[in-house]
Amino acid sequence: MRIGVLGGDGYCGWATALYLSARGHSVSIVDNFARRQWDHELGVQTLTPIRSLSERLKVWQELSGRTIDLYVGDCMDYDFLSAYVKSAEPESVIHFAEQRAAPYSMIDRKHAVFTQVNNVVGTLNLLFALRELQPDCHLVKLGTMGEYGTPNIDIEEGYITVEHNGRKDVLPFPKQPGSFYHLSKVHDSHNMMFACKIWKLRATDLNQGVVYGTITDETALDEALINRYDYDEVFGTVLNRFCVQAAVGHPLTVYGKGGQTRGFLDIRDTVRCVELACLNPAAPGECRVFNQFTEQFSVLEIAKLVQAAGHKMGLDVTVEQLPDPRVESEEHYYNAKHSKLIDLGLKPHLLSDSLLDSLMNIAIQYRDRIDTAMFLPQVDWRKPTNARNLKPQGVPVAVSR
Ligand code: NAD
Ligand code: USQ
To answer: Which CATH number characterizes residue 65's domain?
Structure first.
């Protein structure tokens, strides 16, 4: 299959591009390297020393004999994106290319506006490019479990049957997202549903949970193929952060009561889920939703698992409950359905001690690159952030750290 991976230089996108290429698909990557610039802007870096994309692709070709085509450009630029679709003629396009950190979108007005424009306009451009040039192409779009928020009822996969005043309908599940980033995904979902309805496009919205892990079979082949491992307060996700904190003896930073419950999955399952969606496309006019996670945990449960794994490795791991910088329910009901990908054949990698050990061992291997100043939260949902070097975009600042 000809598959486009938009955002193929990022954490999920890089692992996915290699996985699909290894399975014989003809893969092309689109990326504008915005993510590498955001790292520069925030003064952070991934724990793992990632190489330039051109070097990664060269090494992959040498090792696998397979070529991945690269298109460098911005999804917000319609001329570029439509030229890409025309040239690559993808049968499936996997859209990862968005600003994906909730804290980044909550820094201040500029970052909120940037996040929503980047994400919503990129997806809209893609919908228009597919309609114009490749209407049968299956759009596989990364959404997020955070679109639903934490309602006091079970969460369905995208749609819910509602009975009201004696009438019944199947409607989109109510959305109560918790950041301007998560809101951008809700806006995308609505635009996709509408485009599928009026133009008979085919789309799958993958409402993914929090991803953990860094190693996949392909990225493990050579250090030049190593994937990102973010642990900073803006882009680092909770389990990855806790493993790095444990490795250097920093208290695990549980926000608030720690009862925040989320769906989680191993990055090895991210790549497989995306492949399953591509191999089993939506029908023309269908906008289906899969909840893409394998297990649910509270933040405190995650901290206890990391603490236990650390103790087994002889590490002194403590847990510190910090005031929650976010506005979110710290204790709540949570039961989200997630059977559609299992029905298509997903065999989940469940969170294991060996995975936690390996994440901590990677942290120990690259401990010279760990900056503990990246652990404590600075972005506050309640007010604009002026701390550290998190300044509005485009305003030159002298950084001293
Ligand atoms: P990432 O930041 O590592 O990668 C995103 C990539 O997209 C980057 O390489 C970036 O340069 C590129 N990009 C962003 N905007 C672009 C634009 N306008 N034009 C071209 N390229 C652009 O993020 P990730 O963790 O790989 O996440 C990928 C997708 O999966 C995102 O849409 C995210 O919302 C979703 N997701 C991620 C997680 C997670 O835990 N990482 C969980 C659920 C959903
Ligand atoms: N948290 C802590 N301590 C930390 C970091 C986070 O307690 O040091 C808490 C947060 O307050 C939150 C939970 O852990 O309650 C998850 O936070 P996170 O930063 O791991 O994840 P989140 O902000 O939700 O975003 C990540 C990805 C995003 C994706 C989302 C999936 O960055 O792209 O959409 O996970 S979901 O959470 O299902 O919406």
So the answer is: 3.40.50.720
> Within a 13 Å sphere around the CA of 324, how many CA atoms are in the beta-carbon half?
14
Instruction: Please report the atom of ligand 2 found closest to the CA of residue 102.
Output: 23
Q: What are the tens digits of pLDDT across the range 266-292?
A: 999 999 999 999 999 999 999 999 999
Closest CA to 64 of 215, 276, 225: 225
User: pLDDT confidence of 181, banded at 50, 70, 90?
Assistant: very high
Ligand number nearest to the C-alpha of 320 = 2
Q: Distance from the CA of 292 to the center of ligand 2, in angstroms?
A: 15
The C-alpha atoms of residue 222 and residue 254 are separated, in whole angstroms, by 34
**How far apart are the CA of 101 and the centre of ligand 1, in A?**
9
Q: What are phi and psi of 207, to 5 degrees?
A: -80, 90
Residue 259's SS3 state is: strand
Q: Looking at the domain assignment, is residue 169 inside a domain? A: yes
Domain that holds residue 38: 2-394
Say if ligand 1 is within 6 A of residue 12 CB. Answer: yes
Asked whether the CA dihedral 205, 210, 215, 217 is positive or negative, the reply is negative
Q: Tell me the CA–centroid distance for residue 382 and ligand 2, in Å.
A: 17
Per the CB < 8 A criterion, the answer to whether 133 and 82 are in contact is yes
Q: State if residue 263 touches ligand 2 by the CB under 6 angstroms criterion.
A: yes
Q: Is residue 268 part of a domain?
A: yes
Asked whether 46 lines ligand 2 (CB < 6 A), one says no
Backbone angles phi, psi at 6, to 5 degrees: -85, 125
Distance separating alpha carbons of residues 215 and 230, to the nearest angstrom: 13
Q: pLDDT digits over 211-250, tens only?
A: 999 999 999 999 999 999 999 999 999 999 999 999 999 9
What letter represents residue 368's amino acid? D
Catalytic residues: 144, 181, 185
Residues 113-129: pLDDT tens digits? 999 999 999 999 999 99
Query: Which mutation among 144, 231, 270, 372 tests ligand 2's pocket best, with the greatest number of atoms within 8 A of CB?
Result: 144
The closest of 135, 142, 85, 130 to 277, measured between CA atoms, is 142
What does the pLDDT look like over 332-362, one tens digit per residue? Answer: 999 999 999 999 999 999 999 889 999 999 9
Distance, CA of 107 to CA of 234 (rounded, Å): 9
Total count of domains within the chain: 1
The answer to whether position 401 is within a domain reads no
Residue 363, domain member (yes or no): yes
